């Protein structure tokens, strides 16, 4: 199936590396014009945007700013308007995580993570929905969540809370904005190998991680970006208010020992 997004205009937050960078590339490859957001101005992101324009014949631009600040988000959308004039697709991808024991977690770390992972998608979605509603042609908002919107881990309670909140925001926004033709969909990756997490995955042990995933392997960024293009297309026109898990079944295999007859317990 050759999915085309010609004439559509997209904004991808956190597009400088990892899953976000590959989402931006996949959207451009499908014919969409793309704004790539990065937290700080980066020459390599400017080069990335130019390569997408040259390779796929689309219009691209780079927007930068700290999404934990509401004023920055306001200014980012004003800059988007000046360059493109219309938004059809918003990918709320920007986010981060750090680790703390729950009883020792500093409130400022809790707050900063929720600001970027939950409040920023809320504010960006508001901006996008207002513009989509005014244009009258609908649109698509993809919230990049995580399997930890449903399955928690020790040490990252704030991350799980933020992603669970984003999952409910996806449902609420889909219900409110459906009458304007705006679809809102959650996309929750599992273990995906990127340039950001490669060292952490290797420290955990690739063989260990593969054994925890029912399909038997860590995913790649293309497994997420390809689904993103589909969800933004007319082929997915009846999909809204739900979350698609791209995780190889990882979230359904949290018990690491195997009780089946004739199998090692794995402990």
From TrEMBL:
Transmembrane segments: none annotated. Keywords: Oxidoreductase. It comes from the Bacteria. Pfam families: adh_short_C2. The keyword Oxidoreductase applies. The keyword Manganese does not apply. InterPro entries: NAD(P)-bd_dom_sf, Sc_DH/Rdtase_CS, SDR_fam. Gene3D superfamilies: NAD(P)-binding Rossmann-like Domain (3.40.50.720). Belongs to the short-chain dehydrogenases/reductases (SDR) family. This is SDR family oxidoreductase. The lineage of its organism: Bacteria, Pseudomonadati, Pseudomonadota, Gammaproteobacteria, Oceanospirillales.
